[in-house]
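Cast an eye over this sequence plus tokens and walk me through the fold:

***
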Amino acid sequence: MDQHATWIAVNPVQGCPKVCSYCFLNERGQTAVRPEQLASPAETADLLASSPFYEPDRPIALYTWTDVMALPASRAHLVELLDVLVQCQVPNPVVLITKCAIPDDTLDAVVKARKAGLRLIVYVSYSGLGRDVEHGIRHDELKANFPRLAQAGVPIVHYWRPAFPESATEATMETVLAWAAEYAHCTVAAGLKVEPDALPRLAGLWPELATTPGVTEAEGVYPREFWEFIHATHQRHPGYPLFHTNSCALAYVLGTTDRFGVFGSEVCTLRNQCPTQQRRRCEADVLRRPHLTETMIDTALNRRGHPAPFTFDQTRGEVEVHQALPTNVVAALTQDLGVRVRVTRQHDDPYWNSGTAGAVPLILGDAR
């Protein structure tokens, strides 16, 4: 269990038989391998409940170190885990992420869990990249997930990640967006994450990465044409939301409000293509919230085991902690307080380059 930027990552099965060239699992020896079960469904539920990051309202993402739909054994684990979560009456939003086909029996289990009260959302990862980059992915089956999930009444978030120059063409981007907008509730567009150890490998696909400073510190790296396209999606599909932040996409799908300090930020006002009704919902929530005090901030830091000096800018809705903290603690504090939390960078943290931790996007030259 770990707290990532938006959700608690739950990984009782790890390792993926697919070999997507951009995947962070490459550097961890977790691609082109048979997934390994590390915890039973019952053990997984117990570990989740006992996690120091667990709170009943926090989003949970299952199987982020594999594609759970790839093999029958993984899908069987998922089906049993969904039953356990239903029996435990887990109130959290639960996210599944896949780019593999969802078989009928697994889809039936997803629908059954939702009808039993589990707040389940499926992220379908569809980028427009070919099998030369996403090795082992059958893109016709991937695309078919959209209408099948929509017909079954399962909420879909289109995960548009990552972007490479080869997929940042007008024709490809139009095709991806048109298909997603027909079936999904919204899109989350994310750039390419570049970890230092992965840079030489990724530069083979995108040579400009090797000669551009800052790619390993960026929230995400974007081809310029992709960046410009996703910020004009409202012109092509009016009313269809596109977000840069998973937290905002989940808030929109669930009919809730921002709890990550995004509302009113530059990401909110300039980058997210957010419906007016959702912005009003977040604005009303901010006005209703209890007044945040320095005592409350100090209490939250102590509760997370990191007492530290801080500065609170009430006007900006931002807390700056004058100490290096891990990203998982920053993300948890952000939700505890409902405002942005900035900290000193912890250099050995592999999840540092997230928007929650304060990283910013990097846009590279000409996408062609």
